[in-house]
Amino acid sequence: MKLTTKGRFAVTAMIDLALRSGDGPVTLAGISERQKISLSYLEQLFGKLRRYSLVDSVRGPGGGYCLARPALQITVADIVRAVDEPLDATQCGGKENCMDDERCMTHELWATLNTKMYEYLTSVTLADLVDKQITAMGGDVSVLKDARRSRSGSRAKTMAAFA
Fold first, then answer.
1. CA distance 37 to 101
2. Which of 27, 35, 58, 59 is 20 to 30 A away from residue 114, measured at CA?
3. pTM of the predicted structure, to 2 decimals
4. Is 26 a domain residue?
């Protein structure tokens, strides 16, 4: 059991988006460049994130993506579910037919692990992850730049996007 690149990239891209969304829509090209994720892959992921109502798209010049709701209301579990990332430690996919169409002896162990993983991922919000990134940067959010323009924001301005 492991989280694939689909889930990892979706979470990474959402953190990038949340960090920069205070100035308006963020381009996928900018996220692609900063995070070294293929633009076409991001387009697929953001299509799913949009259908799950986690992001909104803005068309036209100056367009891009923005969060559809405050970062405090988006959990890692929401992001992972939106991109159809299966987090299942059971061998049977929860069908209880692990061993010759019967439940295996360790089914309950792995099913409980699934529950604990989702509980944890539900407890971590996008805002939590953004806070950790800002702290890792020493609180200096002025280093954040979108591909279209520079900004000289402050932590308060960035965090206003999460209210």
1. 41
2. 35
3. 0.78
4. yes
Count: domains in the chain: 1
CA-wise closest residue to 12 among 97, 79, 66, 99: 79
Residue range(s) defining the domain that contains residue 69: 5-86+125-160
- How confident is the model over 131-155, as a mean pLDDT? 60
Residue 102 lies in a domain: no
Query: 109 in a domain, yes or no?
Result: no
The predicted-structure confidence for 4-16, as pLDDT tens digits, reads as follows 789 999 999 999 9
Q: Which residue has the higher pLDDT, 31 or 115?
A: 31
The CATH number of the domain holding residue 51 is 1.10.10.10
The answer to whether residue 53 sits within a structural domain is yes
Separation CA 99–CA 163 (nearest Å):
49
Provide the pLDDT for residue 128: 96
